[in-house]
Write a structure and sequence with these properties.
Number of helices: 16
Strand content: 5-15%
Radius of gyration: 33 Å
Helix content: 40-55%
Order of helices and strands: HHHEEHHEEEHEHEEHHHEEHHHHHH
Largest sheet: 5 strands, antiparallel
Number of strands: 10
Strand order of the largest sheet: 3-4-5-7-6
Shape: elongated
Length: 447
């Protein structure tokens, strides 16, 4: 039988020593007194701490509140907490005060540097939201005005000798010219995809983005010198005569391009604090750091460009499919490539822009907004052009004038200009990008 002690009875089994029992009973009141004294002492200490600490906190708080200036670091951290709630609260970046602030766990403010001073010293960010001249000077040259003109003039006299599979899907073809140069031909049954490719190219020129290869519109005309040698190949490709095509300069030495970590789901933001954290990493070589920042500077343009055009076939494709495949953000980005000899990011296949993408905004706008709402570092030139498009310039007039001046009468007879509905939506999206720049200025600007 198990031994036990029952303090509520006179009988104590297995303990026959009544002297022990009597001594124990006599000590119980003393134990009770000791417990009571300990409880009173603990309560008193806890009460004292509970009163003094809040008093000290509020005293410091109101002292700081009444001071004439506020720490820049404190302001920066509070601002960062606001910006990092973007998209966590809702899809469009406006903070819902009924929900708690969710701060991204990947950015640490454990140390206490002079944030603005540090960013000014390292030379990578200007005025809190712009890539510095140090980054701008390191950007690859890419494709700018003169190169586009040279390509258009070349096509006026070019003679094609071979047409073969390549340059993407469906009825696209790789064309080789008499002198050995090559181009990519985009053929589509839907005229709006040709319009989308062409007017997205024009928009990139207005924004002075060097990331799109030179392109021009032509007509499939078997009697023209350009196509006269390709009767059989055109028949094999099932191209119809008298159809518009976009002919883009072929670019060699292209590799796939991945989505940078700062734009993947757990982070998905880029502001000056993210750049600061990159520059603070002692394990990163300065040359590698600048190379990474040059890539991010091009991404800041890509995010704005894809938002304006509502391009479905690039990052939105990854974001949409993330709900079924969490690893898709680690896969190469669609229709984005990097030139191995210059680190230039090339924005390929923009046919869904401005028309097809606009018709699907109700379904995909949430994905278009994700990256824009979390972008707070811009190329100054791009931001300045957006501001001018908002306040001074008419984007519809600019695009239509380019279309009129750069195309022949035969092209304009077949291919319509950008419709009014698309111009209206584009203006609304320019307003949205302008608002994002202004919001970032108010939160992150050093001035």
């Amino acid at each position: 039988m198990t031994s036990y002690v029952n303090f509520g009875s006179e009988k104590m089994d297995k303990f026959p020593d009544v002297t022990w029992e009597r001594d124990f009973r006599q000590k119980i009141p003393a134990y009770k007194n000791l417990c009571l004294i300990s409880a009173i002492f603990a309560f008193s200490v806890g009460l004292t701490i509970g009163i003094l600490i809040p008093l000290m906190y509020f005293n410091n708080y109101y002292s700081a509140k009444n001071s004439s200036t506020t720490s820049q670091e404190d302001e920066a951290i509070n601002s960062s907490a606001i910006i990092r709630t973007i998209f966590l609260n809702n899809s469009y970046g406006y903070v819902n005060s009924s929900k708690p602030l969710n701060v991204y766990p990947t950015v640490s403010f454990v140390e206490s540097p002079r944030s603005n001073a540090l960013l000014s010293d390292n030379g990578y960010i200007d005025d809190g939201i712009y890539w510095s001249q140090k980054v701008e000077r390191a950007l690859p040259e890419g494709y700018r005005g003169q190169k586009h003109t040279i390509w258009s003039d070349y096509l006026d006299k070019a003679v094609a000798i071979r047409l073969e599979n390549g340059c993407g899907r469906m009825q696209n073809r790789l064309v080789t010219f008499q002198d050995g140069l090559k181009g990519c031909v985009r053929y589509r049954q839907n005229t709006d995809q040709i319009q989308g490719e062409l007017f997205s190219f024009y928009l990139a020129q207005i924004l002075k983005l060097p990331n799109l290869a030179p392109s021009a519109v032509s007509i499939v005309d078997l009697s023209a010198p350009l196509w006269s040698n390709l009767h059989n190949e055109i028949a094999s490709a099932q191209w119809s005569s008298n159809r518009p095509i976009v002919l883009t300069q072929f670019i060699s030495n292209l590799n796939s391009a991945n989505i940078p970590p700062v734009f993947k789901p757990l982070e998905r933001h880029l502001n000056k604090f993210d750049v600061m954290n990159m520059t603070k990493n002692p394990l990163v070589d300065q040359n590698d750091l600048l190379k990474n920042l040059v890539e991010l500077a091009q991404w800041s343009d890509l995010i704005i460009f894809d938002y304006l055009t509502a391009n479905l076939d690039r990052i939105v494709n990854n974001l949409y499919n993330y709900q079924w495949n969490v690893n898709i953000m680690d896969a190469p980005a669609h229709n984005l490539a990097r030139k191995s000899d210059s680190e230039l990011l090339v924005f390929l296949d923009n046919e869904s822009g401005l028309l097809h993408g606009y018709r699907l905004l109700k379904k995909y706008e949430i994905y278009h907004s994700i990256l824009l709402d979390n972008l707070c570092v811009f190329r100054r030139q791009t931001a300045d052009i957006i501001k001018k498009l908002k306040t001074e310039l008419n984007i519809g007039t600019l695009l239509r004038d380019m279309f009129e001046k750069q195309n022949s009468a035969s092209v304009k007879d077949i291919l319509p200009t950008l419709p009014d509905k698309s111009v209206k939506i584009l203006n609304e999206r320019i307003d949205r990008v302008y608002g994002q720049v202004i919001k970032c200025e108010s939160i992150f600007s050093d001035t």
